[in-house]
Amino acid sequence: MWYLVGDIGGTNLRLAAVDAAGAVISRSEHATDGRTALPEVCADFCAKMSGAPEGVAVAVAGVVVDGRVRMTNANRTISRGDLAKACRIAPSKVMLLNDFEAAAWSLATLDPEKVTYLQGGPAPQPGPRVIVGPGTGLGVGALVWQGARPVAVPGEGGHVRLTPHSAEEVAYFEALIALWPEVQMGYALAVEAEAILSGTGMPYWYRAIAQARGEAATLDGAAAIFAAAKTGEDANACRAVGLMARYLAGVAGDLGLVMGARGGVFLTGGVAQQNAWIFDAAFLAAFNAGGRHSRWREALPLGLCHDPDFGLLGARNCLFADRDHPLPD
Q: How does pLDDT run across 135-146, given as a tens digit for each residue?
Protein backbone atom coordinates (compact mmCIF):
# COMPACT_ATOMS: atom_id res chain seq x y z
CA MET A 1 0.00 0.00 0.00
CA TRP A 2 1.40 3.36 -1.01
CA TYR A 3 0.31 6.93 -1.78
CA LEU A 4 1.52 9.39 -4.42
CA VAL A 5 2.22 12.98 -3.41
CA GLY A 6 3.50 15.79 -5.63
CA ASP A 7 4.61 19.40 -5.54
CA ILE A 8 4.46 21.27 -8.85
CA GLY A 9 6.01 24.73 -8.79
CA GLY A 10 7.15 27.17 -11.41
CA THR A 11 10.66 25.68 -11.44
CA ASN A 12 10.54 22.11 -10.09
CA LEU A 13 8.21 19.12 -10.22
CA ARG A 14 8.68 16.74 -7.29
CA LEU A 15 6.94 13.40 -6.76
CA ALA A 16 7.20 10.94 -3.90
CA ALA A 17 5.69 7.63 -2.85
CA VAL A 18 4.87 7.35 0.84
CA ASP A 19 3.84 4.26 2.74
CA ALA A 20 0.90 3.86 5.11
CA ALA A 21 2.97 5.37 7.93
CA GLY A 22 3.81 8.45 5.86
CA ALA A 23 7.47 7.58 5.28
CA VAL A 24 8.93 8.46 1.87
CA ILE A 25 9.91 5.26 0.06
CA SER A 26 10.70 6.69 -3.39
CA ARG A 27 10.96 10.12 -4.99
CA SER A 28 11.78 11.83 -8.27
CA GLU A 29 12.40 15.39 -9.39
CA HIS A 30 12.06 17.08 -12.77
CA ALA A 31 12.36 20.58 -14.18
CA THR A 32 9.06 22.34 -14.81
CA ASP A 33 9.30 23.21 -18.49
CA GLY A 34 7.30 22.91 -21.67
CA ARG A 35 8.52 19.35 -22.24
CA THR A 36 7.36 18.03 -18.86
CA ALA A 37 3.73 16.83 -18.70
CA LEU A 38 2.55 15.92 -15.20
CA PRO A 39 0.20 13.05 -16.15
CA GLU A 40 2.93 11.30 -18.13
CA VAL A 41 5.44 11.77 -15.31
CA CYS A 42 2.93 10.38 -12.82
CA ALA A 43 2.17 7.42 -15.08
CA ASP A 44 5.89 6.60 -15.37
CA PHE A 45 6.32 6.92 -11.60
CA CYS A 46 3.39 4.57 -10.92
CA ALA A 47 4.73 2.06 -13.44
CA LYS A 48 8.02 1.93 -11.56
CA MET A 49 6.10 1.32 -8.32
CA SER A 50 4.42 -1.71 -9.94
CA GLY A 51 0.90 -0.78 -8.97
CA ALA A 52 -1.61 2.00 -8.52
CA PRO A 53 -1.49 4.20 -5.43
CA GLU A 54 -4.21 4.17 -2.78
CA GLY A 55 -4.56 7.92 -3.15
CA VAL A 56 -2.96 10.95 -4.77
CA ALA A 57 -2.40 14.49 -3.48
CA VAL A 58 -0.68 17.02 -5.72
CA ALA A 59 0.09 20.61 -4.80
CA VAL A 60 0.19 23.03 -7.74
CA ALA A 61 1.18 26.70 -7.99
CA GLY A 62 -2.22 28.05 -9.02
CA VAL A 63 -5.86 28.41 -7.99
CA VAL A 64 -7.84 25.15 -7.93
CA VAL A 65 -11.35 25.46 -9.38
CA ASP A 66 -13.68 22.50 -10.08
CA GLY A 67 -10.87 19.96 -10.04
CA ARG A 68 -8.64 21.93 -12.39
CA VAL A 69 -5.80 24.35 -11.84
CA ARG A 70 -4.06 26.69 -14.25
CA MET A 71 -0.52 27.31 -13.08
CA THR A 72 0.10 30.94 -12.16
CA ASN A 73 3.56 31.22 -13.69
CA ALA A 74 3.42 28.56 -16.41
CA ASN A 75 1.22 28.12 -19.46
CA ARG A 76 -0.44 24.87 -18.51
CA THR A 77 -3.58 23.43 -16.90
CA ILE A 78 -3.72 20.33 -14.70
CA SER A 79 -6.93 18.38 -14.00
CA ARG A 80 -7.90 15.80 -11.41
CA GLY A 81 -9.33 13.62 -14.17
CA ASP A 82 -6.07 13.54 -16.11
CA LEU A 83 -4.13 12.55 -13.00
CA ALA A 84 -6.65 9.86 -12.10
CA LYS A 85 -6.36 8.35 -15.58
CA ALA A 86 -2.55 8.48 -15.48
CA CYS A 87 -2.44 6.78 -12.06
CA ARG A 88 -5.25 4.31 -12.92
CA ILE A 89 -7.44 5.22 -9.96
CA ALA A 90 -10.84 6.84 -9.49
CA PRO A 91 -10.97 10.67 -9.61
CA SER A 92 -12.41 10.63 -6.09
CA LYS A 93 -9.03 9.39 -4.87
CA VAL A 94 -7.15 12.37 -6.35
CA MET A 95 -6.71 15.60 -4.45
CA LEU A 96 -5.51 18.83 -6.10
CA LEU A 97 -4.49 21.64 -3.80
CA ASN A 98 -2.79 25.00 -4.06
CA ASP A 99 0.95 24.79 -3.45
CA PHE A 100 0.83 27.03 -0.40
CA GLU A 101 -2.13 25.22 1.05
CA ALA A 102 0.28 22.29 1.03
CA ALA A 103 3.04 24.51 2.43
CA ALA A 104 0.71 25.41 5.30
CA TRP A 105 0.01 21.73 5.91
CA SER A 106 3.75 21.11 6.17
CA LEU A 107 3.79 23.24 9.32
CA ALA A 108 1.73 20.56 11.10
CA THR A 109 4.83 18.32 11.24
CA LEU A 110 7.55 20.96 11.17
CA ASP A 111 11.04 19.53 11.78
CA PRO A 112 12.84 21.99 14.11
CA GLU A 113 16.17 20.69 12.80
CA LYS A 114 15.32 22.19 9.41
CA VAL A 115 14.42 25.66 10.69
CA THR A 116 16.77 28.54 11.49
CA TYR A 117 15.02 30.93 13.85
CA LEU A 118 15.68 34.61 13.33
CA GLN A 119 13.53 35.46 16.32
CA GLY A 120 12.06 33.32 19.09
CA GLY A 121 11.75 29.60 18.67
CA PRO A 122 9.26 26.73 18.51
CA ALA A 123 6.02 27.62 20.30
CA PRO A 124 5.36 25.40 23.35
CA GLN A 125 1.64 25.20 22.42
CA PRO A 126 0.03 24.94 18.98
CA GLY A 127 -0.92 28.33 17.64
CA PRO A 128 -1.68 29.81 14.23
CA ARG A 129 1.27 29.58 11.88
CA VAL A 130 1.95 31.48 8.66
CA ILE A 131 4.27 30.46 5.82
CA VAL A 132 5.52 32.91 3.19
CA GLY A 133 7.45 31.65 0.20
CA PRO A 134 9.27 33.80 -2.33
CA GLY A 135 10.23 31.49 -5.17
CA THR A 136 9.20 31.59 -8.81
CA GLY A 137 6.13 33.37 -7.44
CA LEU A 138 5.12 34.42 -3.92
CA GLY A 139 3.08 31.92 -1.95
CA VAL A 140 1.30 32.41 1.37
CA GLY A 141 -0.54 29.94 3.57
CA ALA A 142 -1.64 29.56 7.17
CA LEU A 143 -2.28 26.70 9.58
CA VAL A 144 -4.75 26.94 12.45
CA TRP A 145 -6.08 24.41 14.93
CA GLN A 146 -9.69 23.33 15.34
CA GLY A 147 -9.43 21.69 18.71
CA ALA A 148 -6.55 19.23 18.32
CA ARG A 149 -6.93 19.01 14.54
CA PRO A 150 -4.77 21.19 12.27
CA VAL A 151 -6.53 22.90 9.37
CA ALA A 152 -4.80 24.72 6.49
CA VAL A 153 -6.15 28.09 5.37
CA PRO A 154 -5.35 28.59 1.66
CA GLY A 155 -5.25 32.02 0.10
CA GLU A 156 -3.53 34.28 -2.39
CA GLY A 157 -1.58 36.47 0.00
CA GLY A 158 1.20 36.79 -2.55
CA HIS A 159 -1.02 39.21 -4.43
CA VAL A 160 -1.62 41.77 -1.69
CA ARG A 161 -0.57 45.30 -2.61
CA LEU A 162 2.81 46.96 -2.20
CA THR A 163 3.28 50.73 -2.36
CA PRO A 164 6.38 52.97 -2.18
CA HIS A 165 7.81 53.54 1.28
CA SER A 166 9.70 56.72 0.38
CA ALA A 167 9.68 59.53 -2.16
CA GLU A 168 12.67 57.95 -3.92
CA GLU A 169 10.73 54.72 -4.48
CA VAL A 170 7.86 56.48 -6.28
CA ALA A 171 9.88 56.61 -9.50
CA TYR A 172 10.82 52.95 -9.11
CA PHE A 173 7.16 51.92 -8.89
CA GLU A 174 6.22 54.10 -11.84
CA ALA A 175 8.93 52.45 -13.95
CA LEU A 176 7.89 48.97 -12.80
CA ILE A 177 4.27 49.60 -13.79
CA ALA A 178 5.41 50.87 -17.18
CA LEU A 179 7.48 47.72 -17.73
CA TRP A 180 4.84 45.32 -16.39
CA PRO A 181 1.41 46.99 -16.41
CA GLU A 182 -0.48 43.79 -15.53
CA VAL A 183 0.76 43.92 -11.92
CA GLN A 184 -0.65 47.37 -11.17
CA MET A 185 -3.45 47.36 -8.59
CA GLY A 186 -6.24 49.45 -10.07
CA TYR A 187 -5.13 52.96 -10.94
CA ALA A 188 -3.08 53.46 -7.80
CA LEU A 189 0.70 53.59 -7.50
CA ALA A 190 0.62 50.06 -6.15
CA VAL A 191 1.59 46.62 -7.42
CA GLU A 192 0.85 43.08 -6.33
CA ALA A 193 3.51 41.85 -3.92
CA GLU A 194 4.62 39.01 -6.22
CA ALA A 195 5.77 41.59 -8.77
CA ILE A 196 8.73 42.39 -6.50
CA LEU A 197 8.92 39.54 -3.99
CA SER A 198 9.67 36.66 -6.36
CA GLY A 199 12.22 35.29 -8.76
CA THR A 200 9.91 36.19 -11.64
CA GLY A 201 9.48 39.77 -10.46
CA MET A 202 13.07 40.55 -9.48
CA PRO A 203 14.38 41.17 -13.05
CA TYR A 204 11.51 43.61 -13.70
CA TRP A 205 12.16 45.35 -10.39
CA TYR A 206 15.90 45.61 -11.04
CA ARG A 207 15.34 47.06 -14.53
CA ALA A 208 12.75 49.49 -13.19
CA ILE A 209 15.18 50.86 -10.62
CA ALA A 210 17.95 51.20 -13.19
CA GLN A 211 15.65 52.96 -15.67
CA ALA A 212 14.32 55.34 -13.03
CA ARG A 213 17.89 56.30 -12.22
CA GLY A 214 18.89 56.65 -15.87
CA GLU A 215 21.42 53.83 -15.57
CA ALA A 216 22.10 50.60 -17.46
CA ALA A 217 20.59 47.31 -16.29
CA THR A 218 23.36 44.88 -17.19
CA LEU A 219 22.23 41.77 -15.32
CA ASP A 220 19.88 39.05 -16.57
CA GLY A 221 17.87 36.78 -14.29
CA ALA A 222 17.12 36.76 -10.59
CA ALA A 223 20.09 34.55 -9.68
CA ALA A 224 22.59 37.00 -11.22
CA ILE A 225 20.91 39.95 -9.50
CA PHE A 226 21.03 38.32 -6.07
CA ALA A 227 24.65 37.26 -6.61
CA ALA A 228 25.68 40.79 -7.61
CA ALA A 229 23.84 42.25 -4.63
CA LYS A 230 25.57 39.84 -2.25
CA THR A 231 29.03 40.88 -3.46
CA GLY A 232 28.07 44.55 -3.84
CA GLU A 233 29.30 44.69 -7.45
CA ASP A 234 26.14 46.26 -8.89
CA ALA A 235 24.57 49.22 -7.07
CA ASN A 236 21.12 48.74 -8.59
CA ALA A 237 21.13 45.06 -7.71
CA CYS A 238 21.91 46.11 -4.13
CA ARG A 239 19.00 48.56 -4.20
CA ALA A 240 16.61 46.03 -5.75
CA VAL A 241 17.43 43.22 -3.32
CA GLY A 242 17.63 45.51 -0.30
CA LEU A 243 14.18 46.95 -0.97
CA MET A 244 12.78 43.53 -1.80
CA ALA A 245 13.98 42.19 1.55
CA ARG A 246 12.46 45.13 3.42
CA TYR A 247 9.11 44.74 1.64
CA LEU A 248 9.13 40.98 2.22
CA ALA A 249 9.76 41.51 5.92
CA GLY A 250 6.90 43.97 6.16
CA VAL A 251 4.47 41.67 4.35
CA ALA A 252 5.49 38.70 6.51
CA GLY A 253 5.04 40.74 9.68
CA ASP A 254 1.67 42.07 8.50
CA LEU A 255 0.43 38.56 7.73
CA GLY A 256 1.66 37.32 11.11
CA LEU A 257 -0.31 40.10 12.75
CA VAL A 258 -3.45 39.35 10.70
CA MET A 259 -3.40 35.65 11.64
CA GLY A 260 -2.27 36.12 15.23
CA ALA A 261 0.62 33.78 14.41
CA ARG A 262 1.83 32.96 17.91
CA GLY A 263 2.92 29.62 16.48
CA GLY A 264 5.35 31.40 14.17
CA VAL A 265 5.90 33.00 10.79
CA PHE A 266 8.02 30.87 8.48
CA LEU A 267 9.90 31.79 5.29
CA THR A 268 10.61 29.25 2.58
CA GLY A 269 10.74 28.89 -1.22
CA GLY A 270 13.65 28.84 -3.62
CA VAL A 271 14.55 32.54 -3.38
CA ALA A 272 14.52 32.44 0.42
CA GLN A 273 16.41 29.16 0.77
CA GLN A 274 19.09 30.15 -1.75
CA ASN A 275 19.62 33.66 -0.35
CA ALA A 276 19.55 33.28 3.42
CA TRP A 277 22.02 36.18 3.68
CA ILE A 278 19.18 38.69 3.11
CA PHE A 279 17.63 37.75 6.47
CA ASP A 280 19.78 40.09 8.51
CA ALA A 281 19.23 42.64 11.28
CA ALA A 282 17.62 45.08 8.84
CA PHE A 283 15.16 42.39 7.75
CA LEU A 284 14.23 41.67 11.35
CA ALA A 285 13.79 45.37 12.11
CA ALA A 286 11.42 45.72 9.14
CA PHE A 287 9.48 42.61 10.24
CA ASN A 288 8.98 44.10 13.71
CA ALA A 289 8.17 47.66 12.57
CA GLY A 290 4.54 47.68 13.67
CA GLY A 291 3.97 51.07 15.24
CA ARG A 292 1.83 50.57 18.33
CA HIS A 293 1.97 46.80 17.72
CA SER A 294 5.74 46.48 17.37
CA ARG A 295 5.99 44.53 20.63
CA TRP A 296 3.27 42.20 19.42
CA ARG A 297 5.31 41.47 16.30
CA GLU A 298 8.49 41.03 18.32
CA ALA A 299 6.74 38.20 20.17
CA LEU A 300 6.15 36.24 16.96
CA PRO A 301 8.62 33.42 16.28
CA LEU A 302 10.23 33.95 12.87
CA GLY A 303 12.02 31.12 11.12
CA LEU A 304 13.61 30.18 7.80
CA CYS A 305 12.63 26.66 6.65
CA HIS A 306 15.41 24.84 4.82
CA ASP A 307 13.51 21.69 3.78
CA PRO A 308 13.14 21.68 -0.04
CA ASP A 309 10.42 19.01 0.28
CA PHE A 310 8.02 21.14 2.32
CA GLY A 311 5.42 20.95 -0.48
CA LEU A 312 5.61 17.15 -0.69
CA LEU A 313 5.32 16.80 3.07
CA GLY A 314 2.39 19.19 3.13
CA ALA A 315 0.58 17.26 0.40
CA ARG A 316 1.16 14.09 2.41
CA ASN A 317 -0.17 15.69 5.60
CA CYS A 318 -3.27 16.94 3.79
CA LEU A 319 -3.92 13.55 2.22
CA PHE A 320 -3.58 11.74 5.53
CA ALA A 321 -5.73 14.23 7.41
CA ASP A 322 -8.42 13.95 4.73
CA ARG A 323 -8.51 10.19 5.21
CA ASP A 324 -8.37 10.39 9.02
CA HIS A 325 -4.89 8.90 9.22
CA PRO A 326 -2.74 10.00 12.13
CA LEU A 327 -0.29 12.61 10.85
CA PRO A 328 3.28 11.26 10.61
CA ASP A 329 5.80 12.35 13.23
A: 989 999 999 988
Give the number of other CB atoms < 10 A from CB of residue 119: 16
Query: Whole-model pTM?
Result: 0.90
Report whether pLDDT(254) > 80: yes
pLDDT band at 124 (very low <50, low <70, confident <90, very high): low
Residues 57-85 pLDDT 10s: 999 887 888 888 877 656 678 889 999 99
Contacts 24+ apart (CB under 8 A), 320-329: 320/22, 321/105, 321/108, 321/149, 321/150, 322/57, 322/95, 323/55, 325/20, 325/22, 327/22, 327/108, 327/109, 327/150, 328/21, 328/22, 328/23, 328/109, 329/109
Most confident of 59-73, 109-123, 169-183: 169-183
Q: What does the alpha-carbon distance between residue 98 and residue 146 come to, in Å, rounded to a whole number?
A: 21
